[in-house]
């Protein structure tokens, strides 16, 4: 699918009307009222999962005492898991109360959690392969407040998870939870051939593959099994660097909606990720050497709410995309900004010819790297602090580095080797313009109810 226009007026056909549903279906699907429990398939799912783990781990040891011991032990584990799963399912519930999500859980130690939806950062619907077979889904709700702030509602029906996701986003936008799901418009669909070629067309992957072939040929021709053993780590590295991303981003589809950027991808773990407006703190466009020949890039972001491993797992907005679409996405997540028009000035001394810095009224842009060119883009309204650093040797040379600090994530916007006077001017300009941008830009809470908020994404 061709990328949709990034800017301009919304010459877009209105979304198709939602199909009418019977009153009973609407009532069954209404997650905005009352208390709800996880799907009943939670119990057999947990029993099956624990039984398979038991057979796989201690099972080979128990089989030595005879098949009967293994069978009885497995039945005992399955029975105990069934009792615990039933009690856990019975004591688990969730529901919406005003502007809060209330979650009850626990068997021995009961817990109750009340989540203010005004602090919602992102909502993901995750469906591993076994859940896809059983028609289940997990809803992951990211909130402001650190690593312990993530709320996971496991083993919901797919329709319930998607309806609850829409209600949570509506509440976070300041709308009623019964508001119909916002329409969406296509942004980009990743062709499988482009994904396959881009993942293979990388220097580490090509180098590891050539070295793997050399070791295989050498081991077979010399008859030395030790040489073949040395190829195993290379094969594992290839699987992690090529097969893993291939399976993860197959069937990748990105769309734009008034409630944020929607991403769908994955085979063995299907995922629907929704990033509400204003949650993206910084963006980087990564262009490896061989990718530049293809005119494609990868787009990563620091997304508020994701921390630690979840931040790294959810930082990629577009895995492989034409360079023009990558810059168009920057205009989507940072409305009114045009990173492609920011003039970049190369470092005069102390840095390489590939280090550059650009600044306008909205964006701080830095570029670095020869083999892998990385362009880091931070809106001035999101800059948490601006730093000028210069060691003793750098001061004698008259150069300094400028860092634009953002919330945690893979992006660390830094311009190295700048002239000391220029670096001071940049720091002063970012501080002044950033203050002006923050005073004129509303926060990301309840974006749909503000008169100055952004309308439907065009």
UniProtKB/TrEMBL annotation:
Annotated transmembrane regions: 43-63, 69-87, 194-220, 226-247
Disordered: annotated span: 1-35, 433-458
Residue ranges, compositional bias (Basic and acidic residues): 447-458
Domain of life: Bacteria
Domain YdbS-like PH stretches: 89-167, 258-307, 359-428
Bias-annotated ranges (Low complexity): 1-11
One Pfam family, short name: bPH_2
Entry keywords, A to Z: Membrane, Transmembrane, Transmembrane helix
InterPro entries: YdbS-like_PH
PANTHER family membership: UPF0699 TRANSMEMBRANE PROTEIN YDBS (PTHR34473), UPF0699 TRANSMEMBRANE PROTEIN YDBT (PTHR34473:SF2)
Designated name of the protein: YdbS-like PH domain-containing protein
Organism: Nocardiopsis gilva YIM 90087
């Amino acid at each position: 699918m061709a990328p949709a226009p990034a800017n301009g007026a919304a010459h877009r056909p209105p979304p198709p009307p939602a199909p009418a549903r019977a009153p009973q279906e609407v009532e069954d699907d209404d997650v905005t009222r009352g208390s709800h429990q996880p799907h009943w398939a939670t119990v057999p799912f947990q029993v099956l999962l624990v039984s398979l783990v038991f057979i796989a781990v201690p099972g080979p040891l128990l089989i030595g005492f005879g098949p009967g011991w293994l069978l009885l032990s497995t039945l005992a584990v399955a029975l105990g898991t069934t009792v615990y799963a039933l009690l856990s399912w019975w004591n688990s519930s969730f529901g919406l109360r005003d502007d809060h999500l209330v979650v009850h859980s626990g068997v021995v130690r009961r817990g109750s959690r009340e989540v203010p939806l005004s602090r919602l950062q992102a909502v993901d619907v995750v469906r591993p392969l076994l859940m896809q077979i059983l028609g289940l889904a997990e809803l992951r709700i990211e909130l402001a407040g650190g690593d312990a702030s993530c709320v996971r509602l496991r083993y919901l029906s797919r329709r319930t998870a998607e309806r609850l996701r829409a209600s949570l986003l509506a509440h976070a936008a300041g709308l009623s939870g019964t508001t119909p799901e916002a329409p969406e418009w296509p942004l980009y669909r990743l062709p499988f051939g482009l994904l396959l070629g881009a993942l293979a067309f990388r220097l580490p992957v090509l180098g590891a593959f050539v070295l793997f072939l050399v070791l295989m040929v050498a081991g077979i021709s010399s008859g030395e099994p030790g040489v073949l053993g040395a190829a195993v780590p290379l094969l594992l590295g290839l699987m992690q660097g090529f097969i893993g991303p291939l399976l993860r981003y197959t069937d990748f589809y990105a769309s734009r909606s008034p409630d944020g950027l929607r991403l769908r991808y994955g085979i063995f773990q299907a995922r629907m990720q929704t990033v509400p407006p204003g949650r993206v703190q910084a963006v980087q466009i990564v262009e490896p050497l061989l990718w530049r020949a293809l005119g494609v890039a990868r787009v990563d972001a620091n997304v508020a709410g994701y921390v630690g491993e979840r931040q790294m797992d959810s930082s990629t907005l577009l895995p492989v995309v034409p360079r023009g679409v990558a810059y168009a996405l920057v205009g989507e997540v940072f409305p009114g900004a045009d990173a492609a028009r920011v003039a970049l000035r190369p470092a005069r001394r102390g840095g390489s010819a590939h280090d550059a810095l650009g600044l306008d009224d909205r964006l701080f842009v830095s570029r670095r790297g020869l083999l892998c060119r990385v362009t880091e883009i931070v809106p001035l309204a999101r800059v948490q602090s601006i730093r000028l650093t210069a060691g003793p040797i750098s001061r004698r040379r008259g150069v300094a580095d400028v860092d634009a600090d953002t919330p945690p994530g893979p992006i660390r916007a830094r311009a190295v080797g700048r002239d000391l006077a220029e670096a001071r001017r940049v720091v002063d300009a970012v501080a002044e313009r950033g203050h002006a941008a923050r005073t004129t830009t509303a926060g990301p809470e309840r974006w749909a109810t503000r008169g100055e908020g952004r309308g439907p994404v065009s």
